[in-house]
Each structure stands twice: as structure tokens, then as C-alpha cells.
Amino acid sequence: MKSLATPNPPTSSLIRRRPNLPVLLLVSRQTRRCPIRTRPLRVSCNHRSNDNGHQAEQKQQQQQQQQRKAYPFDEIEPRWQRYWEENSTFRTPDDVDTSKPKFYVLDMFPYPSGAGLHVGHPLGYTATDILSRYKRMQGFNVLHPMGWDAFGLPAEQYAIETGTHPKVTTMRNIERFRSQLKSLGFSYDWDREISTTEPDYYKWTQWIFLQLLKRGLAYQAEVPVNWCPALGTVLANEEVIDGLSERGGHPVLRKPMRQWMLKITAYADRLLEDLDDLNWPESIKEMQRNWIGRSEGAEIQFHVLGSDGKDHDVKLSVYTTRPDTIFGATYLVVAPEHSSLSSLVSEPQRRCVEEYVELASRKSDLERTELQKEKTGVFSGSYARNPASGESIPIWVADYVLGSYGTGAIMAVPAHDSRDHEFAIKYAIPVCTVVTPVDGSRNDLGEPYLGDGAIINSSNLNSGLNINGLFCKDAASNVIHWAESTGHGKKKVNYKLRDWLFARQRYWGEPFPVIFLDDTGERVALPESELPVTLPELDDFTPTGTGEPPLAKAVSWVKTVDPSSGKPATRETNTMPQWAGSCWYYLRFMDPKNSESLVDKEKEKYWSPVDIYIGGAEHSVLHLLYARFWHKVLFDIGVVSTKEPFQCLINQGIILGQIEYSAYRGKDGELISADSVDIVGEHHQEQVPVEKVMRSGDYYVLKDNPSIRLTARAHKMSKSRGNVINPDDVVSEFGADSLRLYEMFMGPLRDSKTWSTSGIEGVHRFLGRVWRLIVGSPLHTGLYKDGTVSVDEQPNFEQLRILHRCIAKVTEEIEGTRFNTGISAMMEFTNAAYKWDNLPKSIVEPFVLLLSPFAPHMAEELWFRLGHSSTLAYEPFPKAKDEYLKDTSIVLPVQINGKMRGTILVDEACSEDEAFRIASEDEKLSKYIDRLTIKKRIYVPGRILNVILEQQKVGKR
Q: Average pLDDT for residues 902-908, to the nearest whole number?
């Protein structure tokens, strides 16, 4: 497909001249030569002005800016970003050397909204960038791409509100996101950039749909959906909150509609079993297991009774995971949307049931099944016979049972199920205990017993079933055998997972490659040669109000002909959901410009699976489940070579806004301490500026009234709270490297963290210390000298040991994605290096390479100043040497004129000169050694250092 990236300018534009340095000619892109600057580096940029007064004002502003900046990031970062782009430094060739190991690291690609990035977004992106840069330096072929999940409801709603075409909005948002990401120095291969809205991309989304259709995995069915009249579309369950649409807060109804469905349930067992082999957080795997919800049980038939109490020729099938408790079933529950409900309702109860069904239609499945929700229901007016006990039991309608799970009906056993018990108590339905603990204990608190045990009260001569005294597992097997032999039921495996509702009544989405013949209504899949089916240009995106999608308004597009028979036909006017494009984008990154197939087989075989996938936990179920499903279908038809798409998954935490402090006032206007709020009664909350707050022990209090304790809380960043931090502002004030480093230093990648301006200032000062350590302090003019202050001298043992311990620690922490502790190790190195008399170049260079994945702009600049003409992006990552990692330090006693004066820490193999140097630098010992002339030194390696000084002559009085 056509790349969205800006074309690279000619390489010759990088040839510049810098004073006092020879011109280094840039050759091919593969050599990745460094740019030559045109002037010495300044702390801040100069701006010319003809107005002397304006110049003075500018000079003053520059001086103030210089004081705030720890190093000249505003010159360094744009230059290296320009260099990387002009030289395609991070481009992964289409044909890589497959003898080298590969590393495919992927971000969950963003939806490009008009708001742009906030500082929470770069958290995961920085982590993947560190890993990418690290692996490149280790000799891996690295695939590190970026793209846009750009179809969907937000752009369409914006189009409706403003009259702007979604494509215009989407492209504008993409431009902004791309610009922001590039300003942070991420090493993406922008030549592989994709957008789900490009026809060259969604051609293959449509192709995948056709493969699903051919294999019976895509079908149409009349199903209850979340219909939002105001938005004119079907919403997913997670898009509905408290009966309202998440976007806009519009009422949502449950109504049956003919929809496209994908048969994900056919892959339920494989989706479940293959989780075991994945390196994913256990919590995420458990969430997927619960979503799939495999259970073993029985399907039992209950005969519906007429008003005369006799069996009618109607059966109600229920699914239960506890057939052992069948004698405890004292009522049945059918879902409000059960297909047979109308025939079950008695005439006196019909109006009540219809009103209840209407109310239930306004709730999402999530709301209906929430455990904490108060149970509601209505009696149907009918009864059924319990086939085991022979008793007549009532049939209720209740929304805590879903029509989409099992048979849409359950046998309720209130003595041994929490939801059934709550419902039975509320509506005075009998409770019959049929399971008792083995030890005979039983609580008398009126709570249901949910554990294992022995069966009681479970025998009936007429039904021929007696399971008294059996343990639950054996009793369940007996009940299933009895049901199958008597025709009352059968063994059944069930899933909570439902087939995937795969249609939206929207314009801004992928069109279905399907038409319907006008004369017969027959559905016809378009041939692959007709792909892509592109969206028509449409000016009116508003809902039709009839349930028809907006695409129905594109009459000339809707009316078409069957390419095979030439018969008049009508196009499908629903579009695919936003999930479609994000299900397989990781494959297209492997081969983004292939017009002949979805992905080249050899390229897919080399790059699959994704080695590390990083994104938010909010996508842990649906996106990942859908992508795994599509991948398995593609595996079955030979398109991909692996069973799973993402081998390792990491969920980064979220970055919360800065801590907000709140005080409370009573109704009389007096301040109330936060620890007294619960007992005061009426009060209101007000925010307190941070400058009026101080810490007192474990609490925050008012500076001018420490008796008033405050609450301190950080909230998720949102425009409504006004606590969003724009990364553009942070980069402008502190630089991209500071932002990158701070987000990694805030805490473990997987944890949520609170933004702190003082925290980023601290990291910025650290980078300034690194800069001054290696480059030196600025001249009085604000300029920095060329090169560095490093020297071509051999490092001593202690310097080598500090370096290699830093190398070992940083390497270990990058491998473990513990980036915060890796940064701490580099801080410790810097602190130690400031105490040295000299800075050997052979120590500085490895340290700069260690720093480069974290702060790439500064590292590239330092590498260039150290005399290198090529980017460090492909330099070998330093390796720690074992001889410097061994803990061979000993405590060496030091005597002065035979008298013990202190100890020093030295290496076991320390020479006499080295031991004396360390002693002379010791604060306590130096006051003895510096004052007098040294007469002799006595050194016993590993035992003692004795310094003999000339005695001072004491004059006569």
C-alpha cells in the first residue's frame, strides 16, 4: 500500500561544514554517516533582530532559558531526528539476512484522535523502542513498525457534528500523531506505516472475510443487539454503560436485527487450550479463560404444565453445570429474550411480563449479570414439572439469565447458588437443601452452601432416581446417565463465549464484499478479483432513522450487478466493526506493500510470531481474542505458520495525572479535617493548590493550618478533569530524552504511576550531569567546546569494575523490562565517574552505548563528539567481563607511623600504588598524609598499608 510517511529528502542535504573539523562526506544510506554541524553547539538558539531593544529582551529570555536547561537538547534532538529520517536509519530491509536472529516488537497501534497524544501514550512506545534499539545493537534483525487503527465511530460522529468527511479528519489526526511520535525519537520503520482505512490495506481485510464465509465461519442471523437510535448503529456490550451509549450518553435498546456473525465458538477449545503455551500475564490468560467460559454439565428437559396442572406437549430445555442438585431446583428462570417466552406466559401475567421485557431491553449483558446488582424478575404465570422430584415448580422471567448463554433458561437451586438464593429470598420461593458438607457442619446464617459434599433429600421412586449419599461428582454422573436413559436430557459442554457480532450500521468502516441478487435475495460473495470494495463518497453520514445504515444513502453505489451472472444486485450496506482491521495488522507489517497476497509466506515464516506485544490491559480480552481467532483460521488455510500471533504480552500501567489535594468544608463554611468527614454530615469538597500543601508524617495538611488533614489522589488523565499533560509541552521544556527517561524511571513498566513535574526535572538534571561529565561545562558565551573531556589513557581497575558492573546491570534490567532500575545503575555510574581524576575514552564509549536505547539523541551526539562518523544504532551493545564482576574487594587497614588510622576498600589484587592512591583520597586519612613528607611505605598485599612519615622537629622554648 501507499506509505503515509513523508518522502526522504536527498542525502546531500546533510553535507555541512563545521569549524575546526574536516568535512566528512556522506555516502550511501547503508553507511549511515553522521551529520556535520555548521557551528559550535550552543545552549540556546540565537535569533537575529534589527531592533536592539528586542535583541536585549531576547538575550535575557535566552539566559533565563539557559538557566532552566541542563543541556542543549533543543539543538541536539531535531538534528538527530532529521538525520535518522533522511538516512532511513531504522528501515528494516524487505529482504533481510535470515541467518541472523529476528526480533519483532510491536505496540498496540493507536486510534488517532484529534486530541493527539498525552504523556500516558509514550509509556509503552518508549519501552518497545528501548527493546528495539537494544536488540539492533545485539545483531538482531528488528521489526519495529507503527500504523493506525483509524476506522470507527469517533471519526464518524465528528463528521456528523462538523460536516467534515471522516477521511479528512482521520488523515489530519494521523499527521498529528506521526509528528508527535517522531518528536520523541522512536526508532520506527516508517516505510512500513499502514492505516486500516487505506483500500490497499482493507482489501485484505475483505479477503479474510471471504475465507471465513467460504468455510461457514461467517453467517447472518437474527440476534438481539444493542441498538442506539441516536447513533444509528449497533453497539458492542462494552460500548454501553448503564443503558446508555458510552459515546454521547444516548439511550440504548435491545432489539433483534439481522446481523453478520463470525463463528468464533468453533474455535473455543483451541483458544482455551493454546493459552497455556503463551508468555502472557496469568491474570490476562485467566480473563480470557473466563470470557470463553467452558463448562461441562447437562441439558435437562422440563415439561411445561397447563393451567389444569397436566403436562402439555411443550418442553423447556435448561442447561446446568450442577445436575447433582436437580432435586433442589424449586423454580425455573427464562431470559427476557427467550424465543419461547410468549408461549409460556399466562394471559393474566402477559402485561407485567411485556413491561419487564421492555425494561430489560435497556440493559447491557454486563449490567444484567453483575453480581452486586439487585435481582429482579416477574412470574410468567406458568409452571413446569421437575423430572427428578415430580414436583410442580414456577417459571419466572429474570434478566440475570441471558438468552445468549446455554439454552436461555436455567433450573434455579437457591440452596446452592448465590444468585438463585438472593432471588428466591426476595420473591419468597422455597429453598430446598440437597448438599451437605462431609463433616456434617452447616452454617445457620441462611446463606447458600456452595461447596462440595454429600447429597441428601434426593430420591424419588416414581422417577427412578436415587442419589442420596453420593458425593457431588458421582451424583452428577448418575443424573446425566439417568437423563440420557429416560429421555430427560443429555451431557453437554457449554461456553459463555458467543459468536462474534460482526456488523455495524456505520459509514466509516470496511464494506462487506457481498451482494444480494434483486430477484431472489440470494447472497453472493464477490470474487477476489473485485477487491477492494471501496467506500463511496458520501456527504451525509447521519443515521437514517430506519435502522438502515448510512451507506444505504449512496444509491448509485448500492445498486450494482453480479459480476458473474450480470443480474441486478444490491450491496451489503452494513460495515465491519473497528475490530476487523486490528485483527491482523501485525501480519501486514511484515510485508506492507504486497499487492498479490496478504503476506509473503517466507517473510511470515521468518518474522512470526510477534516476540513482544505491548499495550494496555483494556484490550486484554476482545482485541486479543479476536486476533487469535483470525490467526487460527489463517493457520488452518496455510497463510500463517504459527498457532498463535503474540508469544509474549506485556501490559503497561497507566500514567495518572498529578496528585490533586482536596479540603472539606462543613455547611457552616468551616474547614474539616479529612479524617473527620465521615462523622460530620453535610460537607463539600474543594481543591487546594499544591503550594499550600505540606507533608506531615504519612499525611498531607494545609501549610497555614496543619490540623486540617487533606486527601491526596491522582486521577486518570482526561480533558474533563483538566489534568492532561501534553508531551509536546514536556519536550519543549525538557527535551524528548528527558520525557523518555522519566517515563521509564517512574516505576515498573507494568505498574500505574503518578505524573510529577518535579520528577521529570530530576531526570533532566541527571542527563545534564551526563552531558557535563563527558562534554564539560559551557564557556561564558554559552557555547560548548568541540569534542569531549575524555582522555586516551588506560583506565584503572576500579574504573573498569564500575563500568562493567553497570553494563551487567543495565543488560539484565533491559532483558527483564525493568527499565527503572537500569536507569538507576547508570545514575550510580555517573556519580562514581564524577569522583575520578580523569575520564578514559575507553570507559566513556561503552557508557554512551548503554545510555543510547534510553536517551538516543544525547547518545548519538556524544558518540559523534567522541570522534565517530557513523550512527551508534548498530554498534555492538557492550558486554560485561566476568573478571570485573567478581566481588574481590577487601577492607585494608591503614597505619600512619605504625598507628592504626583507618581502613580503605580495595581489590584483592590491588597494587601498592593503587592502595596508596585510594588512601590519599580518603577524607579521614588524607589529613595525615597531605601534611608531611612521606619517608617510606610498607605494603603487605591483602593485609596492611603502613605509611611512614618524617617526624616534625619540635623547636626549643
A: 86
Residue 226 near residue 234 (C-beta atoms within 8 A): yes
Contact 616, 230 (CB under 8 A): no
What are 728's three cell numbers? 509536546
> Distances from the Cα of 147 to the Cαs of 144, 197, 826, in angstroms?
11, 11, 33
Residue 90's nearest CA partner among 860, 861, 867, 868 is 860
Report pLDDT for 54. 55
Q: What is the 3 state secondary structure string of 192-232?
A: HCEECCCHHHHHHHHHHHHHHHHCCCEEEEEEEEEEECCCC
Q: What angle do CA 360, 366, 367 make, to 5 degrees?
A: 50
| Residue 46 to residue 59: CA distance in whole angstroms | 8
| Helices 282-292 and 622-636, axial angle in degrees (round to 10) | 80
The closest of 330, 526, 276, 298 to 407, measured between CA atoms, is: 298
- H or E, element range at 568: strand 568-571
Q: How many CB atoms lie within 10 A of CB 785?
A: 14
Pairing of strands 377-385, 392-398: antiparallel
In angstroms, what CA-CA distances link 594 with 517, 587, 678, 926? 33, 11, 65, 72
Distance in angstroms (rounded) separating the CA atoms of residues 574 and 920:
82
Alpha carbon 788 to chain centroid distance? 40
Report pTM. Answer: 0.82
Structure confidence at residue 884 (pLDDT): 84
Q: What is the largest CA-CA distance in the chain?
A: 134
The rounded mean pLDDT for the chain is 88
d(C-alpha 693, C-alpha 704), whole Å: 9
Q: Which of 143, 133, 186, 32 is nearest to 849 (CA)?
A: 133
Looking only at the bridges linking them, the beta strands covering 753-754 and 514-517 are unpaired
